[in-house]
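Run log, item B.
One chain of 263 residues. Sequence copied directly from the ordering sheet:
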Amino acid sequence: MNILDRIVIRKKEEVALAKEMVSIAQLEQSKYFNRKPYALKTFLLDPSRTGIIAEFKRRSPSKGLINGSASVAAVTSGYAAAGASALSVLTDQDFFGGSPEDLALAREANEIPILRKDFIIDTYQIIEAKAMGADIILLIAAILTPEEIADFASKAKELGLSVLLEVHSLEELQRSISTNIDAIGVNNRNLADFTVNLQHSFDLVNEIPEGVMKISESAISDPSTIIELKKAGFNGFLIGENFMKTADPAAEMERFVSKLIPV
């Protein structure tokens, strides 16, 4: 059993418990449920921003503790000030040290789109995401059937949320393309064993349908990489560990952005 299998098993347990504790009706009464979400595409294509989806992540199964002391509000607002087009906030507790409270804190502090970074396996989690104040949900092709992807994307659209579909291979991409997908993210990290290879992005970029935003995820640690990815056709770049592993993630992003050359 690989890490991803373990995460999914645990996630099923979490969702079952969450349904017992908080009903959908209760989620629909939450503070943020009726707010109009920000559109990912609008912010990704805004020329005044960087295209970077900056991530707040405390730890990971592969690296262990990355940053245990950072303030969600301070880091995410710093990311936004440095030109982030969107934010990604981990809400998985057991494997990544995140929580729904982290996303709520980021929402309170920012006026740009926020991705709920988690392992969605049930429509309940999509309703949760809206209640937390998220604008974007992540659908991971490796753990979902084509039917689930279509159903979840449809539910997200019903709630006004943007949908980021994450793939790692051509096979995942080809079987997972569906309507209601706003962006396709090529994860350069294999979630089964957490190895990384940036070449995945370059191999798949031209396979992504026209009209869908193209995002490269993980293994981006040098500004020159973003320049090359832009030339290849990518609109967005999800970066987390490269910033979070430093004492001041927001300042590190500001330094990173200062080295970007417009393409």
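Observations after the first pass:
- The chain has a mean pLDDT of 95.
- Residues 3-21 form the longest helix (19 residues).
Flagged for discussion on Thursday.
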